[in-house]
Amino acid sequence: MMSEWSAVVSRPVRRAPSPVGRSGARRSALTAASPLAALLLSATLAFAQINLASVQPLQVDIEGTPLISGWIIDPEPAAPIETWQVEAEGWRQVHHRWAAGGGSKLRQEVASRPDRLEITHLRLFEPDVVGVTYCGVVLPTDLLDGARFECIGSPRGEAERDGRTWSGTLGDGGVGAIKDLEYLRLHLPGGAVDFDCNPKGVWCPGEGLCPATERFALARAEDGWRLWSAHGKVRRGGLHEFKLVVLPARDRPVAEVHPPVNTRWTNPYMPTVRLNIAGEPAERYEEVTLEGAETSRDERFVDVQAQRVVGATVTDGELRLSVPVERDGVYLVSLLVGAPDRQVGPCTVTAGLGQPREMPPVAAGEYGSWALPGRAHEGAIEVAIAGNVRLVAAQAAPMMFENEDYHLERGWWVSTEFRKDDDLPL
User: Fold this and answer.
1) How far apart are CA 140 and CA 154, in angstroms?
2) pLDDT digits over 336-357, tens only?
3) pLDDT (tens digit, 9 = 90+) per residue, 305-337?
4) Taking the model in full, what pTM does it have?
5) Which 3 state secondary structure label does DSSP give 249?
6) Are strands 148-157 and 191-196 parallel, antiparallel or unpaired?
7) What's the rounded Cα separation, in Å, for the pair 264 and 424?
8) Distances (CA, A) of 385 to 201, 310, 313, 352, 411
9) Helix (H) or strand (E) holding 38
10) How many CB atoms lie under 10 A from the CB of residue 315?
């Protein structure tokens, strides 16, 4: 039970909006749809149910119309591919496939429900078996010829570009191939359908760093439109792996399904939300007041940076802050803490992800940053700080959006009920 000194708030109380700085512009970019994308969405976006009719041969229908009409697996496994069905909560069908021999091992999973199809592929090659391997699916020629599309990739032919998104028509006089394909939206008679070729999103930026980073290609061939992933460095031995997700088109423009809000590896995570506690103006920060918290000023810096001298204090209890975000997912949460006249902390902090974190003390007269991962649910990260604290500011930087999470809320495979002799990695 919280003490009478606890500061509890379900949402920050906002004062006048702060000027739009870099974070504000970045947030606006996440929600601003181009006129072309909005037109295509409004014209063709409809819920179309997906049905897995057969795994071998592969046939996937959408509203009774064939959407996928076959496999691409090259080179063919030396032994026949075994296929069997397993159970997984929330899925209508989950099929596992396995083949071993001839210097390779193949594991595949095909999982389906009316609103989603996932094809997950992992193949190990020993050295000097093959130089290039391909895997993917065939789409019917008569369905895609003349279809409007949007994509993140490199189309070959007549196409229009709007930011990260290309759009055009497939077939003669339009686009005959798309290389480096990350995301594809097809506008079909039965409704728009999305093919997510890198469902982990742009936070997973390059080949070899993690699964689902192999680029796809779409090209017209004699047997249909071929959507495949190729790995051209398996002469030395290695893994070819990916996940292809097919689903009725999301209610977001293509460029916003996996927005590149951060540059990883070389630059820090950039915050999209900055909050200045206690309600005084601060450039690029949004002012919030925590109801029930005691506020105080640090007058030492009043002539230098007046907007940073106010903080919310709890000396015996719990301080709560709700950080509003545009999209649910995993964030890096940073808390600026410190007091001019006393030590702050140690404190226990939670932000909706994992176990409570013990944060180190900050000496009197100094300021420190407490960083921890946070999980946003329903548009907010709920932060709770227990102990002796004075909170000055908070910010949140997206690390991985909810639709890209294959680490925490779910795994890479829908089911891990593999064969006993399957020694391939998870």
Assistant:
1) 21
2) 999 999 999 999 999 999 999 9
3) 665 678 899 888 899 999 999 999 999 999 999
4) 0.83
5) coil
6) unpaired
7) 28
8) 32, 18, 11, 12, 30
9) helix 35-44
10) 14
